[in-house]
Specification:
Helices cover 18% and strands 18% of the residues. The protein is α+β, with helices and mostly antiparallel strands. The chain has 1 helix and 2 strands, in the order E-E-H.
Length: 56
């Protein structure tokens, strides 16, 4: 098994269903794929937020 890129401790392979990742018990490193593309967020006005709140 490989060593952790942060602390060089042995990595553990974890599987949940069809998803598998490697993690380090010592420092908490987890080899989780991430998407680095940013998306423009739509901002909500205070009035829209209050209206949404009172509708529920």
């Amino acid at each position: 098994m490989d060593d952790c890129p942060r602390c060089q401790a042995p990595l553990e392979r974890l599987t949940l269903g069809e998803v598998t990742t490697t993690a380090c018990n010592r420092c908490g490193f987890a080899d989780v794929p991430v998407e680095h593309e940013s998306r423009e967020m739509a901002f909500e006005s205070w009035q829209d937020a209050f209206n949404r709140f009172y509708e529920t």
